[in-house]
Amino acid sequence: MAIKTPDWVKHAVFYQIYPDAFARKVPPHQKWLLDVPLEDWDAPPTYQGYKGGNLWGVIDKLDYLQDLGVTALYFTPIFRSASNHRYHTHDYYGIDPLLGDREAFDLLLKAAHEKGFKVVLDGVFNHASRGFFFFNDILENGPNSPWLDWFKIQGWPLSAYDGSLPANYVSWIDYRALPQFNHDNPAVREYIMQVGEYWLHQGIDGWRLDVPDCVKADGFWEEFRERVKGVNPEAYIVGEIAFDATQWLDGKQFDGVMNYPFGRLTAAFIIGDRVDKDIIPHFYEPYEPLDAPGYAKGIEELLARHPWEIQLTQLNLLDSHDTSRFLSIAKGDRTSAKLGALLLFTFPGTPNIFYGDEIGIEGGHEPDCRKGFPAEEKWDSEALAYYKQLIRIRKKYRALCTGDYQTLYAQEKVYVFARISEEEALIIAVNNGQEKAEINLSELEKVPSLLTIKPNNMIHGEGSSNWDNAQLQLIIPPRCGLILAS
Amino acid sequence: MAIKTPDWVKHAVFYQIYPDAFARKVPPHQKWLLDVPLEDWDAPPTYQGYKGGNLWGVIDKLDYLQDLGVTALYFTPIFRSASNHRYHTHDYYGIDPLLGDREAFDLLLKAAHEKGFKVVLDGVFNHASRGFFFFNDILENGPNSPWLDWFKIQGWPLSAYDGSLPANYVSWIDYRALPQFNHDNPAVREYIMQVGEYWLHQGIDGWRLDVPDCVKADGFWEEFRERVKGVNPEAYIVGEIAFDATQWLDGKQFDGVMNYPFGRLTAAFIIGDRVDKDIIPHFYEPYEPLDAPGYAKGIEELLARHPWEIQLTQLNLLDSHDTSRFLSIAKGDRTSAKLGALLLFTFPGTPNIFYGDEIGIEGGHEPDCRKGFPAEEKWDSEALAYYKQLIRIRKKYRALCTGDYQTLYAQEKVYVFARISEEEALIIAVNNGQEKAEINLSELEKVPSLLTIKPNNMIHGEGSSNWDNAQLQLIIPPRCGLILAS
């Protein structure tokens, strides 16, 4: 059976919202609940403090997001959870009270849909939290709990909170705060499937799945796909798998994964040895700077790894709530951030902007990367304009979304590739070197459709282009990029 | 302002359901969730084991309850809770998964209402549980939790589960599993008020309140009454206050309380020194057997203690989930159980049958009193017929519900009283002695309305009656009771 992934994802521009730190608003009718002591919005984020961002705040920010041009919102978890990142799920059916309430969620979803945004939620189905009811019942009732088989208990009494004793149950990376589900229990499986279906029925457009590679039960994600697509065939399912995800990208499980390999390659090329070694994301280790040939090789291997239909719905990213900010990895070098974004918005797969990258938020390892979205006077307005332009281009040229990918040139610090569909062709060139690049793209006869169209309209960037029959000459200023369209 | 309590309560017969042990049914569509390992239904109940009774089971039992004749159901807690009695609330808005789900509750409420039952739920608003989200967040995030002020924290780190350390937060009777709310926090107060309103909006007919005397915040229960009655002016609010409840029965707080003083007096009179001292409920200590004059004195003091409008909506009981069964306190003496029931069903206030008393379930201190409701072949069918008759009488004669109460005779082991309304009068006589009683009720001219009506129709019990002008002669066999109606 042919692999099928959602068309809307291929044409989307995602924006990742970390709800605790994105926007805060306390409506009068929720003042009683939400006026609580919080960490200062602009103070460095901490592991356990809350900034109090909420869904009411997001509703107010939808105009900003629409103006930015993004078309899909991926929310890190919003379900009730005793952690500011909310990956410690306490209740899969409830909105976290600090984020507002169910009314806030319903209003947000409705408003987002009315403005044309898709909405993807984060599902943490490998593990729950110590407060999650079925685990809490075991903690409270010991061997008498009817829910024993929901987790993998190894001894009594449970030492869930006493760090001086070994945690005597299976937990995610042996972190006792996150007891791992026993996915071999059919009840657990059905429970998770029903959660998956439930929120689709409530109108969300997809699931981002936390550490799905840790779930070992046979056919688990195949069933999840069937159940979710059974509710909405166009639902997007994207896994968080930072390394080789081939096993899960067979078309029977996920539509894509968070494309950390793309982020890793792009950092290695664009940031190169400008890198701040102290905050290299562990997903990127071992970090080795790449020149253009190395980048081209990595990118082509990556593109060859998965079916094209899947490539088009990979969730591409430069950074996330789990990594240092790209800008900070580049020690604040704004040019690197720009060139990285240029590659992000022109690569096959859907680009995902981690909230605030578009206005130049900096941040090291988590939780530092999860800073409160700053007031407008602190924005990097040049970065914002740049992002807006790239988003407009991404949305205007379908070839950037679904066109073929062809490396055209990769030498030293200069990398050039094309995105080509039947109707249009674009050439994207990046000169990451300190010198002006004057290059001749020959052998273009290998790309006949490109030669037919001969894109020569510089819609982005600086430099010049000149077609001479089957040859294209490009002049690109140092550390610049450009896009030629037809 | 005149005190007002719900009329329906005055005419109701309550049945108290302990959901874990009352009835169990697993519908096919919930098999995936509910087929779990459980304590054997007929095994002695334990503190931490579950029998798995559920709401689906209760739905199936409604015909039985209708046939029994009761008109109102009081459920001990049904909200999500990691304890078989479910007084450790984990979520005030969710039905416990072992009890079924929200669909089960909605169907139960609908079916119960269609059959004419009122439904009262148990609200545990003094304390929550360690798994309750707002406490769990404090446990997980320590001083960074936004919800610190929801409880009364006294030190860090919280020793919620480590019994070797003092529990460094305020909990109910210093039991660390039940952290006590900080009711002085307006958010906590509002949260509880909204829970109270919410379930009324869902259609329940009232609240039984767990240990409400432990809530010290000014005007808390006054506001709760206003909020609840604001949703449904006919809602019933009954507190669990085992001792003198005068302070809460001023008409501004509760419509009544669980009338343990009535149960205590009735046990002391009817069971007397047949008592099993090992299982006397602590509510009844110090236990002293009473003869008829002592009982009359106690009952009259009890009736004088609260306004009459409140008396009529007291929740009278012989036992509950918190006490040994009346039958067992009487060492299995069925005659005591019958005479106790006779007094229960003829006393002002609404009678409350603890599930299974009507079929002769025995049981000592909790949890033993919470046995699985047995299969029909184990029922005491004589007890059941007796209960049915008394319930029929209670419902037929409005004077038993709202008529005046008048002691007519109290000597040695014989106690006689009347319930008198404008239309009818009943005389209830109990001879708790081992000898036949032949008594003359003179001085009846003090009760002119009784003399007008002269009830002489023996609708229940054994013995004989004979009116001679203003005198009534009664002959009552040993350890018997009777009811004369007009």
TrEMBL record, chains A, B:
<dbReference type="GO" id="GO:0016798">
    <property type="term" value="F:hydrolase activity, acting on glycosyl bonds"/>
</dbReference>
<dbReference type="GO" id="GO:0005975">
    <property type="term" value="P:carbohydrate metabolic process"/>
</dbReference>
<feature type="domain" description="Glycosyl hydrolase family 13 catalytic">
    <location>
        <begin position="16"/>
        <end position="394"/>
    </location>
</feature>
<dbReference type="Pfam" id="PF22026">
    <property type="entry name" value="Alpha-amylase_C_2"/>
</dbReference>
<dbReference type="InterPro" id="IPR017853">
    <property type="entry name" value="GH"/>
</dbReference>
<keyword id="KW-0378">Hydrolase</keyword>
<dbReference type="InterPro" id="IPR006047">
    <property type="entry name" value="GH13_cat_dom"/>
</dbReference>
<dbReference type="Pfam" id="PF00128">
    <property type="entry name" value="Alpha-amylase"/>
</dbReference>
<dbReference type="InterPro" id="IPR013780">
    <property type="entry name" value="Glyco_hydro_b"/>
</dbReference>
<dbReference type="InterPro" id="IPR054174">
    <property type="entry name" value="Alpha-amylase-like_C"/>
</dbReference>
<protein>
    <submittedName>
        <fullName>Glycoside hydrolase family 13, putative neopullulanase</fullName>
    </submittedName>
</protein>
<keyword id="KW-0326">Glycosidase</keyword>
